[in-house]
Each structure stands twice: as structure tokens, then as C-alpha cells.
Design brief:
With 132 residues, the protein is α+β, with helices and mostly antiparallel strands. It contains 5 helices and 6 strands, in the order E-E-H-E-H-E-H-E-E-H-H. A 6-stranded antiparallel β-sheet has the order 1-2-6-5-4-3. Helix 1 packs across helix 5 and helix 3 packs antiparallel against helix 5. The radius of gyration is 15 Å and the shape is globular.
Length: 132
């Protein structure tokens, strides 16, 4: 099932949480992305706040080729990188995988040269999501 918000796009998948995390990492790798950061939100909330939280993982994905192109156009763009992809279990117990929408994020920059790059990054993220 496809899902979209004003700032992200993704899908509900018929996979367990850990399986979805592993599969999206592999799929992103096939699209030229590496995972720069991985935040286990569930573990951090338990450690720092002493509270239980649903399975929730944030993956900081970066495609070096696209990042290099974008930073060549707008050097301060690093504040919007990497592209975050989240995997979580929703209120109904389904696993969702969502990616930030780079086209929408780049609109706030106001540099039209970035829109072509953002469209390509969105296509690559979409291709990774489609593999799930």
C-alpha cells in the first residue's frame, strides 16, 4: 500500500520490522546509496527516557554522486543531507518504510538547479522502495 505525506513517500510492506530494515538497506545499496547513520529510536528512547516505543529505525542514506552534484550547486545544502529513510511499525502492527521527499525538501532552498537533481534522487529512492 502506497503512502504519502507532505514531506515523505513510502509504503506499507508485508515484512517483519527487521526484515524490512535489511531489505531496504540492500535495495538502497543497489540504487547507489550507502547508510551513513542508523538510529534505533526504540533503543534510544528506552536508554534516555526509560520508555517503551514501537520499533522505529532511522537510516541516513546518501548517494555520493547525487550529494556531490547537489553540493556543487549549493554548498550549504549539507544541512538537508543525508536522505532519511524510516522503518517503523504502525498502530495496526504493519511495517512501513518511508523516505523523505527530496523534491519537496529542495523547494525550500529556492535554487531551481537543484530540482533536477532532487527528481533523480526521488526516482532512485522510489526504485529502492519498489523492491520491497
Amino acid at each position: 500500500m502506497e503512502r504519502q505525506t507532505p514531506y515523505s513517500f513510502g509504503r506499507t510492506v508485508d515484512l517483519g520490522f527487521e526484515q524490512a530494515v535489511a531489505k531496504i538497506k540492500d535495495a538502497l545499496g543497489r540504487q547507489g546509496f550507502g547508510i551513513l547513520t542508523e538510529i534505533d529510536v526504540t533503543a534510544k528512547f528506552k536508554e534516555k527516557l526509560g520508555i517503551a516505543f514501537r520499533p522505529y529505525r532511522i537510516l541516513g542514506a546518501c548517494n555520493p554522486t547525487m550529494a556531490h552534484r547537489a553540493l556543487g550547486v549549493e554548498i550549504d545544502l549539507g544541512v538537508l543531507l543525508p536522505c532519511n529513510v524510516v522503518v517503523y511499525v504502525d498502530d495496526e502492527g504493519r511495517t512501513r518504510v518511508m523516505a523523505m521527499d527530496p523534491e519537496k525538501a529542495m523547494r525550500v532552498v529556492g535554487n531551481p538547479q537543484l530540482l533536477e537533481i532532487a527528481a533523480e534522487v526521488r526516482r532512485l529512492l522510489g526504485a529502492a522502495l519498489a523492491e520491497l
